[in-house]
């Protein structure tokens, strides 16, 4: 119980407390924020079979502040804690105190999403996690319109999520249901509509084509430490929702949506891959590559196969790790070169071999190099999709792997290799703190690349056999 | 699906096997992490590590060839990812042959690199990559399952990428590295497809399980073979996935010798030989593999006749020779295909290292038109290259005579007369272009001081790009100087097997045949109208004809007297199709690269902002209520709105918290 409180409440409380610090003392703010993030991460490691529940509503349906971890939420929460720690460590923006406060608030809100066992609490934190990103975009972004676009899309999703949660509660009588399966049928009148509301929210948040257009500007405008966390973890909230809400609680409706979702996933993975080939803004390349990778995970989830589901969780973690590395390192580069436009960069590896090395490992993991975690996830996911009988989806999903090699190498080479660009403002290789911020992520990519089975300890029957009730 | 687990090889604890596999990895980490401290020790250290791995490989010989109750070789388990995804190492005769070449020839090339890379700014990084390559290649051949194979497959691709682009300040090297990697990912994807199908039908990725369940593959067998062969074709530069190999010559010459001649590019041969139970069960797949191999052999040889860059000549010859090997394993002559890998590794490494002696001495000049007359100045390099050329041409007694004829005659014996004749024609062309290279490089007068345009070199600034990190010894660029013994010794050692290795194949009861007796099941052969000796004679006639034409064109008295004019004429009148390498690059660009970029541009510049955002805007604007709401957002205070979001959510929850029923 203490552990769960530490994970959810501590970052939020510390985030507000940070505002009490003197505005100008950057070192103090960073020290405290790093300490809080480190404690949260340690609490995350200790998080095993924890549960806490406080009664909240009795009518019109029962609800409770119920938090617990299952095998999926645990790893995503740990990923979140690690990414936040690394991002806080790496953060170097103006008005650092306010920014770090937002980072901690963001962490706490997302912890709530991944640890909530009650749909209403899940929905509450789902909406809360918009706020820090929105404020981050307004305060530190380049165009205010991006913040509004982010808010409008995600608030629309949050609205349908709340409506569906309320309807679920009324129809079923309780929202304290996450982590359970084999619930009574909701009936053919309620089920599809409730699922549609959830699905819309999940698709926007992930995002999946054609609801993705808020994402590239958001990813390129948000300060790198924040976008590292948003792209690594917040983008997984929708996929997590499809697994724990869709597969476990609404299997019939989930099955009925299979073909629509497979199509959307396949379009996303091709569309994102093709667009990433020709972008010139480094952060937009990673943004569109995310669209491609997350589309693949959606296809894996909707193939309803235990192997594909294991692969999906591996890839969720993989994508979190390499996206965090890529965005953090792109942040370091932008800080030094004052640009992230590929035509204006080049030859950095000569003066910054360590930055180039870290970036190379992130890019290689993203393009699915065997031996790193991305490959394990992709291979297991796709083997599962194929084993489930989806011949063509598995075949089509191989195309973006080739595209990923092309755009990731282009990204890496255009920045790091070729002739050096003269007159660069600062030439300084990775500092100690920056190195400390990236190293754990890189080590995790290598470790789980060799041992991906460590991530798949969760019970797939909770999701897949529950879904297999339907024809 | 429960079934008995089939493991190839005798289970046991083989600490030596771990050592052979992991020593190069340790060396790579050491050179990478402690490069600045090691300085010039990095090269000797990396070489010693590979030498130790070679010794370990030889010590494993007994275990690799042991046979107990149908299990052949040595096997250790490494753990599992999930059910059916079991990993392990397998050292059997097939793996042993590859390990001997990887570590043995690899050791010599490492030693040679100590001299070749001397003075390079990134000396330690080079050896870290080389050791990493050896580790990756050992992973590839020692895996006992297809996923482990693919891991090695991808990692050798990475090593190749890093080493092609080793001098990454050069845009041409960067482009070549990217091209090699992307084409190899196409191959990886083919293999991934094969893995899906194998797992779906067998429920396991282990070789033992796969080969014990070939009938269970059913109709998927052909597709699995095709998927595997796409991987083989990409890695082994088979048509139409070969275009990366000539460009890969941007890497330092020892890299070309080790990765792009002796070992990595032969991984496709290993793959087909390893999966022989599958290919042997699918005649259609065999036909495909053999045909592609034959086409590649011929095409590589034809393109080899039109090159001026000494390394590109050798690259096309590598492509052509691997075409032979693929043809051999494709028709079912597995022993023959593997034997040509074995002999080719020696003489091609020797040829590349020999060319490296010249390139090094001439300060990175690679155009043979600007060489000439080097025989007197570099006698050692001359003899090294001559022996290599004699070996690759298959002059009787030299190594390729045995191994190449085993493939050519094997094609006939397994019922592929067209491939038999293709192989013979290719042998003739091979003799022509190899002797062309030899004559133009070593005979006549030195042409390094001739105006490039008189030699027909159109873009001299492109022909001899000075390297940013050129190993330089401070002498004048005009006078070639002798290389250090550390570069000559490995070449001298390689001469022995490149001349004699073929004798292992001699006779009906050859040691080679005995070595592989338990590895491959002999395939059915057909009666041939031509006895083996007669076939060899036909090949020999073709080879002599090729040498004769090369002599007439480049080494006869009139040719040598007017060498400059003749080379200029040949350059100017080179057929466009040959100069453009039969337009494969252009075709791949038009068919794949341009459409992909076009789609990306259309999606990114038009669909995203215009269609999708446009539609969303229409929806938003057409809803007046929402329209007003959004307009007020734009005028309102930003922070105030953030409060509204939280407040709204709180109100919603409060309503449910305090409502007394619906």
Tell me what you see in this structure.
The complex is a heterodimer of chains A (471) and B (662). Chain A has 471 residues and is mainly α. Chain A has a domain at 257-471. Helix content of chain A is 72%, strand content 3%. Chain A is built from 22 helices and 2 strands. Chain A has helices at residues 2-18, 26-46, 71-90, 96-115, 119-128, 130-140, 144-172, 187-205, 215-221, 224-234, 236-249, 251-256, 258-278, 282-301, 306-337, 348-351, 353-366, 373-387, 391-396, 399-416, 432-450, 464-467; strands spanning 51-57, 63-68. Chain A has a two-stranded antiparallel ribbon with strand order 1-2. In chain A, α2 runs parallel beside α4, α3 (71-90) runs antiparallel to α4 (96-115) and α15 (306-337) runs antiparallel to α21. Chain B has a 3-stranded mixed β-sheet with strand order 1-4-5. A two-stranded antiparallel sheet of chain B has the order 2-3. Chains A and B meet through α5, α6, α7, α13 and α18 of A and α7, α8, α30, α31 and α32 of B.
Write the layout of secondary structure elements.
The complex is a heterodimer of chains A (471) and B (662).
Chain A: H1 2-18, H2 26-46, E1 51-57, E2 63-68, H3 71-90, H4 96-115, H5 119-128, H6 130-140, H7 144-172, H8 187-205, H9 215-221, H10 224-234, H11 236-249, H12 251-256, H13 258-278, H14 282-301, H15 306-337, H16 348-351, H17 353-366, H18 373-387, H19 391-396, H20 399-416, H21 432-450, H22 464-467
Chain B: E1 10-11, H1 15-33, H2 35-38, H3 42-59, H4 61-64, E2 67-68, E3 71-72, E4 74-80, E5 86-91, H5 93-116, H6 123-142, H7 146-164, H8 171-202, H9 207-212, H10 214-217, H11 220-235, H12 244-247, H13 253-262, H14 267-274, H15 276-280, H16 283-304, H17 310-331, H18 334-361, H19 374-377, H20 379-393, H21 399-413, H22 417-442, H23 460-463, H24 485-500, H25 511-515, H26 532-555, H27 557-561, H28 563-572, H29 576-579, H30 584-622, H31 624-635, H32 638-658
Parallel strand pairs in B: 1-4
Antiparallel strand pairs in B: 2-3, 4-5
Helix pairs in contact in B: 1-3, 1-6, 3-5, 3-6, 5-6, 5-13, 5-18, 5-24, 6-7, 7-8, 8-11, 11-14, 11-16, 13-18, 14-17, 16-17, 16-22, 17-18, 17-21, 17-22, 18-20, 18-21, 18-24, 20-22, 20-24, 21-22, 21-26, 22-26
